């Protein structure tokens, strides 16, 4: 068993919420509880205690980290990623620079079908090694829990391969991992859509369930991909196999994704670059977590989700990376935090709530992660010296994480 860890002289212990397991919404998103001049005690992989420095326990026999001039946060929870992929797609990046649209690239065999082609020729072990490198990268940048989707296989064998790799990341790294089956990401070139949907429902979903490979099921509900009715049929088939729903919704068009997400009790609806009053009003009727992916909006030059309008309507908001090779080739949540502040006009406090408490809720991890609370998992990071919390997103493009502790062990 690792030694107890005592972090002392913390300038600000952020996101202190004892016995908190929900989410924050509306005006409450602007409230980020910070305990000044604090200590944090970690024991047996859990947060054992915290409080003002004058009441800190003895340092005898403990691993000590002096966090003078630094902040301590609960690790980020990234609730939407495509971490398992075989190869990058920078050739499409150049096509975009020259004016090609997402749809035009897809029509030329690019996009998701390009990733599927590359993934099918990659062995499971090779795929794991490539994914492991990315997992270690996001750990160093402050992420402690992550959702990983399939969706670049588009065959039974290759979708299973992706999910096995995702599960293995959860076993062989300190990351807490949740997995999502996204077979309905695109239609492979060699099949009709009707035949592919039949394959997803009748073969893929049962095979995924048989191996217990997915916590969730997702669909790319979008013009040119899957309609509202097709999305609902696929999600309901997954629910029968005990996969809860989450959804790619309203990225490129007002696709009806938000509405079908609420109808199927989705845990989250993600993207939301194209939503209006109707979608906001629908979201107010349930506990589905609206999730913005600012990296994708930035990379594709799309409009950003209307964060201010959503928060002022009383909604919660989560922020995730959408780490994938086509539309958001970064798993750096620090970058997403800065983008959300700069482009979505969210305050630093709102964004730190969006990448911890609200994403933990979206992944059903609120009981163990997302805030500083006794008996929660000791997933925290210590920042580099900083004059204030606002300095962290302000000083964009620089890694503000100095030390990473996951499951009570110093990782980095």
Could you describe the 3D structure shown?
The protein is an alpha/beta fold. The chain folds into 2 domains: 5-74 and 371-410, Urease, subunit C, domain 1, CATH 2.30.40; 77-362, TIM Barrel, CATH 3.20.20. Helices cover 35% and strands 21% of the residues. The radius of gyration is 21 Å and the shape is globular. The two termini are 18 Å apart.
Calculate the terminal CA-CA distance, rounded to whole Å: 18 Å
The number of strands is 17
- Shape estimate: globular
> What's the average pLDDT?
96
What structural category do the secondary elements indicate?
alpha/beta
Quick structural overview:
By secondary structure, the chain is of the alpha/beta class. It contains 15 helices and 17 strands.
SSE diagram, text form:
Layout: E1 5-14, E2 34-43, E3 46-52, E4 63-66, E5 71-74, E6 76-78, H1 90-97, H2 102-107, H3 112-120, H4 124-140, E7 143-149, H5 156-172, E8 176-184, H6 193-210, E9 216-221, H7 228-240, E10 244-245, E11 247-249, H8 257-263, E12 268-271, H9 277-283, E13 289-292, H10 294-299, H11 307-312, E14 318-319, H12 333-344, H13 348-354, H14 357-362, E15 380-383, H15 391-394, E16 401-406, E17 409-410
Parallel strand pairs: 1-4, 1-5, 6-7, 7-8, 8-9, 9-10, 9-11, 11-12, 12-13, 13-14
Antiparallel strand pairs: 1-2, 2-3, 5-15, 15-16, 16-17
């Amino acid at each position: 068993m690792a030694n107890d860890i005592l972090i002392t002289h913390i300038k600000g212990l952020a996101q202190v919420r004892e016995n908190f397991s929900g989410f924050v919404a509306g005006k409450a998103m602007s409230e980020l509880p910070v305990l000044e001049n604090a200590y944090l005690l970690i024991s047996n992989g859990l947060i054992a205690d915290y409080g003002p420095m004058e009441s800190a326990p003895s340092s005898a026999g403990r691993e000590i980290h002096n966090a003078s001039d630094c902040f301590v946060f609960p690790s980020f929870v990234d609730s939407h990623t495509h971490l398992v992929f075989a190869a990058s797609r920078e050739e499409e990046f150049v096509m975009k620079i020259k004016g090609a649209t997402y749809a035009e690239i897809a029509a030329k065999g690019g996009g998701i079908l390009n990733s599927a082609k590359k993934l099918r020729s990659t062995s499971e072990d090779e795929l794991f090694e490539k994914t492991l490198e990315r997992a270690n990268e996001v750990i160093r940048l402050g992420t402690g829990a992550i959702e990983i989707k399939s969706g670049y296989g588009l065959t039974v064998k290759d979708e299973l391969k992706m999910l096995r790799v995702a599960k293995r990341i959860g076993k062989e790294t300190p990351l807490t991992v949740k997995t999502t089956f996204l077979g309905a990401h695109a239609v492979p070139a060699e099949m009709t859509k009707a035949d592919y949907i039949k394959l997803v429902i009748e073969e893929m979903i049962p095979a995924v369930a048989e191996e217990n490979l997915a916590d969730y099921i997702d669909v790319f509900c979008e013009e040119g991909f899957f309609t509202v009715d097709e999305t609902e049929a696929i999600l309901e088939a997954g629910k029968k196999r005990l996969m809860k729903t989450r959804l790619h919704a309203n990225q490129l068009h007002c696709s009806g994704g938000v509405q079908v997400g609420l109808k199927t009790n989705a845990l989250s609806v993600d993207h939301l670059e194209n939503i209006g009053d109707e979608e906001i009003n629908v979201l107010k009727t349930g506990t589905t977590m609206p999730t913005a992916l600012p990296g994708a909006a930035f990379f594709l030059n799309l409009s950003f989700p209307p964060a201010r309008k959503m928060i002022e309507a009383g909604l919660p908001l989560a922020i995730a990376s959408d780490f994938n090779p086509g539309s958001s080739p970064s798993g750096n949540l620090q970058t997403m935090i800065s983008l959300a502040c700069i482009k979505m006009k969210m305050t630093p406090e709102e964004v730190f709530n969006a990448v911890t408490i609200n994403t933990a809720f979206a992944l059903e991890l609120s009981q163990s992660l997302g805030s500083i609370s006794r008996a929660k998992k000791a997933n925290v990071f210590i920042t580099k010296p900083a004059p204030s919390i606002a300095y962290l997103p302000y000083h964009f493009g620089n890694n503000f994480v100095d030390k990473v502790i996951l499951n009570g062990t110093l990782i980095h």
